Amino acid sequence: MKTMVDLDDDALALAAKELGTATKKDTVNAALAFVAGRRRRIDALLGDPSAFGVGADIADAEVMSRARR
């Protein structure tokens, strides 16, 4: 889909350098993909109780009694 937008040329240049893209279209699409992927990764982490080292056994007194402190 074609859409007309005003872009911040300085931000676009920095994004292109960071993303390794050569055209405005590639830079914008890569930036959108990066942000969307980041959101998916964050949502996956937040939805996984053991992602932060806290598993279901944290409520198990026997397991926790053997945990290093």
Order of helices and strands: HHH
Number of strands: 0
**Which parts are unreliable, with pLDDT below 50 for 5 consecutive residues or more?**
none
The count of domains is 1
Q: Describe the largest sheet.
A: none
The global form is: elongated
What fraction of residues sit in β-strands?
under 5%
Name the structural class: mainly alpha
**Percent of residues in helices:** 55-70%
Mean pLDDT: 87
First and last CA, distance: 56 Å
Overview of the molecule:
The structure is a single chain. It is elongated, with a radius of gyration of 21 Å. The chain is mainly α. It has helices at residues 9-19, 24-46, 61-65. It has one domain (9-65).
Q: Which key features would you list for this structure?
A:
69 residues
Write the layout of secondary structure elements.
Layout: H1 9-19, H2 24-46, H3 61-65
Helix pairs in contact: 1-2
Short description:
This protein has helices at residues 9-19, 24-46, 61-65.
